[in-house]
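fwd from M.: "can u put these together and see what the complex looks like"

so here's what she sent:
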Amino acid sequence: MFDRAKFWRYTRYAVLTVALLAAGFTLYLDIRVRSEFEGRRFALPARIYARPLELHAGLRIAQIDVVRELQEAGYTQGPREGEPGWFANDNDWLEVAVRPFVFWDGMQPAKRVRVAFDSGAVKAVQDAEGRELPLVRLEPLAIGGIYPANNEDRVLVRLSEVPKQMVQALIANEDRNFYAHHGFDLRGIARAAFSFFTGHGLQGGSTLTQQLVKNFFLTPERTISRKVTELFMSVLLEIHYDKEEILETYLNEIYLGQDRDRAIHGVGLASLFYFGKTVEHLTLAESALLVGMVKGPALYDPFRNPQRALERRNVVLRETKDRGFATMEEYSKARAADLGVNQKAAMGTSPHPAFLDLVHRQLRRDYDEADLRSEGLRVFTTLAPRVQTAAERALERKIAQFDKGKIFGEPGLEGAVVVTDTQSGEVQALVGGRDVRFRGFNRALDAGRPVGSLLKPAIYLTALADPAHYTLVTPIDDGPFVWKSRGAPDWEPTNYDKIFHGAVPLRMALAHSYNAATARLGTDIGVEKVLTTIKRLGIEREMQPYASTLLGAVDLSPLEVAQMYQTIASGGFRTPLRAIREVTTQDGRPLKRYALAVEQAFPPEPMYLITAAMQGVVREGTAQSLRNWLPPEIAVAGKTGTTTEQRDAWFAGFSGDRLGIVWIGYDDNRAARLSGAGAALPVWGEMMRALDPEPLALPKPDGIENVLIDPASGLRADFACADAVELPFAQGSAPAERAPCASAVGAAVEQIRQQAKSWMERLFGK
Amino acid sequence: MRILVVFLAAVIAGCATGVPAPSQVLVPAPDQVPGPGPEFGPPLGPGPGPESAPLPAPPAHTENLAIAGLLIGARTDAAAGRLVNAAASLERALRIEPRNPRLWQELARVRLKQGDYAQAESTAARSNSWAGSDNALRADNWRIIAHARNARGDAEGAKGALEAAERQR
């Protein structure tokens, strides 16, 4: 029997339940809308900058290199009155309208500068009125970021910064009733419903508020229930926030394209990305292009589909004019303009992922990963774009040449490069593999490879620190050598050329990288002592106190090798390698500075001697072929390294201004059949040649004297010895005995010279 | 005549060290520069007696306007207690002239003021490594080192450094 009362009771319960559920759902949505929208905190990536280029009279840089860097930073050629971000040039002059930039030490306003060039150097820097400027800091290149989930990138803008006509064009094209509706637009919904029921699918009809809700809170699937949720939330959003707040958030949220793996969000970043200028400087035509892209950033991508993008822009312009937001005159002018987009190489999350990786790791010591990905920190690094480019090009070209057709099979030959400043320890360039844009295995940091002969300078340095026993001319026996130690197989190092050379002067044993002589020298001094030297040079990794360690049976990464050679290149002052100079908050408040730090790890005299010996490696030893790239007066100091079966090819060397480390080999440790001199050195040479290196001229310490030596006997020579060479010695350590070639007259002359010298010293107080 | 003397001095310095001498032309610092005032004297704190006080910073010797500007800025900042900025300006200058011993010395003075005595000592030593035959500069560096050692409680080391300073005469 049908019980009427029961029916109504259940119906009432059901209605109540539904109402409660609906209320609960609304409350839940309301909490979500308010909590998530309240702070409107977009996750902002940490933004990473290269070092700023600092122009001053006397700086050695060609105009083309400055222009290249300006173009990379989005500066366009040709003057544009009233806005910065362009340059103009002729043969001798470069005029730049520098954009304003917030450096770590404060805001630098926009300014005009004129730079005069003369034979590969800056001759003068002036302001627009022709007044001399001592130093001008250009805006640094953005070289990537540390991104939030989905690699979303954006630059926040305030509504007041956005051109009025852009907002009007947006409203005219996307949501005409924006200022009137309460989050949804009945006419729009009617249109959408019509389209749905006529079989055109669920589409369109969204207000800006709905679009924002969709992007901000929801997943992109298109279902009725999601649509209903969107509607609810839109209404709630409109109840809690005013139109201006919603609009501003919309403009910062909207997705406007893709740069490789980086997603371009918001009109702030889109203006910079497509036009190379800040949003307030966009013209009507440029604004309309961005507004048009809202409908389909890929479809209307002005780089890939310029024609379609242009047509879409013109539709937007017409609609803007028709709604009364642009005059006929403005409309015609905008319509006639070309797209105006600033085509530059895709950057993705970074064009230099290996360097960024290093920066990221150094940042992680001091910052939380979540903060790095969301707080919009600004990180000023030491990357020198010109050096980075030279390193990338040299490695790419040479590897392609050595590995033509990958003759030794897949995967192909690999390599890594590290370049630092010899004085400050700043890392100027870092390449982690032959595919320089690849974000992945970073060989410069993570490939621990046997270093072979690269450790030899540490052995010779240990010897030369003891001038009573070792000088550059001390004979070292390069005869067959056997090292016996209990519990280990005998160790019998052989030479690269399979020949033993008998007694050789110490400097020649290093120059030619003789293994037997070096092993004998190292074991005579004591392995432990050499390991102490290596540690003091800056290698933190623990090493086994085996004799074989001396010949480089030790795995180090190129960066570790760079740290070790840095100490030699800076004359015995250990300087921690740095990739970061400063970090600021999003709005420029300084957070941290990574200061230059030095520590004297060795007295100057042995450093001077080992550097002279390493210059010998390049002048007359295993790295002689460097003369194919650099003139001898650069006096580079270096060392080649080749490991067993030529699995690893290394070259480490420095000029006056830069230290470079190059490694070449296979990831799977196959025999590369390439030597340090044959493979790594050419990369180094090609790279450094492009960088116009400064000659290496170490200051001669007090405790060093130069003495003429007869190479044949290793004894003191004079003008009568035809082949005599001048070599540095720790004071009093040079051989006293005169070479057979020296003349009696020479002895007398020498005595007079000594007297004259002491007389001069007394006169000048030195 | 003065130019000739400076030139000769540069040549002699060059001969004596085998290293290109740093810029020697004197650019007098403008009057308003708060240069070698008491702020550049010994930092407050225990240790250093008056005899170990480093000499006041000498005027900026450089032909490079960029360096001169940064040096003036660094001194202004140091005098006003903005030591981080002062150090940063000096590092900027060092990127332009890494072999200028005066810049290294100036940085050592800032480190001293910052109370970073280890860095003050090694930075002064770095200055010494580029000082060539500039004995006055070396003597100043040794006084900075003495000061730093004293501040770290190494009286013996400080004494040695002061002796080294005396030997530069």
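replying to her w this: Helices of chain B lie at 2-17, 65-79, 83-96, 101-114, 117-129, 135-151, 155-167.
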